[in-house]
Design a protein that fits this description.
TIM Barrel; eight-stranded mixed sheet; 276 residues; alpha/beta; 8 strands; 36% helix
């Protein structure tokens, strides 16, 4: 597999470049985020295909392997979503890639969205160049038996695997235990873990910009094939430093997706060592 895609247009990279000449020490901290591969999110706001096209072009030019996250099914009218996901599949067919399909939808809504997820797998499978992962939430959300039942209904047999801890803070050890349990119930399918901000585990039950968190393991494919052959990758699916939201329980963060420099620096400074 080619190296994972580092987005030259990420908000972390933009922050790093702006700080290089004025505050190199600060820039060096942000570079610990900006220089790492991170997933590319596509929203149903009319801009998703442009983002996908640009990331596909950049990844192809660099000879790297992008990870895409369509997060649009709740924003796009149901009759229009099949065409949207088909267009997306055609755009990214220019490169080998991985897709983490519609985070939160299966853990939150269960079988309600199983048919659209199943159909989306078929659309993404058409090019033969995309690895497809379904969201399995995390162990504090569902137990392995109930989540595996949802995954089976949604077509996990047709997918390449499932994803754990997207945009959350559960520890890697907990995620591996959960992933192994689910895998045993879904035909041995492999799994990926979002390690973007789980270096110190969760903060009670708070998940919107909780304080005192840290970067986790750097993104890598096949991190421990001897001990955990079904663990495909540690990935930064959530982009560290981008706010979870600005709600009353979000610790003063800016709106969702905006760069929050203070939080980014804290994630770096709180990071336990060593990291792989």
């Amino acid at each position: 597999m080619a190296g994972l895609f580092v987005d030259p247009q990420s908000l972390a990279m933009q922050a790093y470049q702006q700080l290089q000449s004025t505050d190199p020490a600060h820039a060096a901290l942000i570079d610990q985020i900006a220089s790492q591969p991170q997933a590319v999110w596509l929203y149903g706001d009319g801009n998703g295909m442009t983002v996908a096209e640009q990331a596909t072009y950049n990844a192809a030019s660099a000879g790297t392997y992008p990870v895409f996250v369509p997060f649009a099914v709740l924003q796009i009218p149901a009759p229009d979503y099949p065409a949207w996901i088909k267009d997306f599949a055609q755009v990214i067919a220019a490169v080998d890639s991985a897709v983490v399909l519609e985070p939160n939808v299966l853990p939150q809504f269960g079988a309600q969205y199983a048919p659209v997820i199943s159909d989306s797998i078929d659309a993404l499978r058409a090019s033969g160049k995309t690895r497809i992962y379904l969201d399995a939430g995390h162990a504090a959300w569902h137990d392995a038996e109930s989540m595996s039942g949802i995954l089976n209904v949604a077509g996990i047999a047709k997918a390449d695997g499932f994803a754990i801890n997207i945009s959350n803070f559960r520890s890697t050890a907990e995620c591996i235990t959960y992933g192994e349990a689910i895998s045993a119930l879904v035909g041995g399918k492999p799994y990926i873990i979002d390690t973007s901000r789980n270096g110190l585990g969760p903060h009670d039950l708070d998940t919107c910009n909780p304080p005192g968190r840290a970067l986790g393991f750097n993104p890598v494919w096949g991190p421990d094939t001897t001990q955990y052959p079904r663990l495909d990758a540690y990935l930064w699916i959530k982009r560290p430093g981008e706010s979870d939201g600005d709600g009353p329980e979000c610790y003063g963060g800016p709106p969702h997706g905006q760069w929050w420099d203070d939080y980014a620096v804290a994630l770096v400074n709180n990071r336990p060592n060593p990291q792989t």
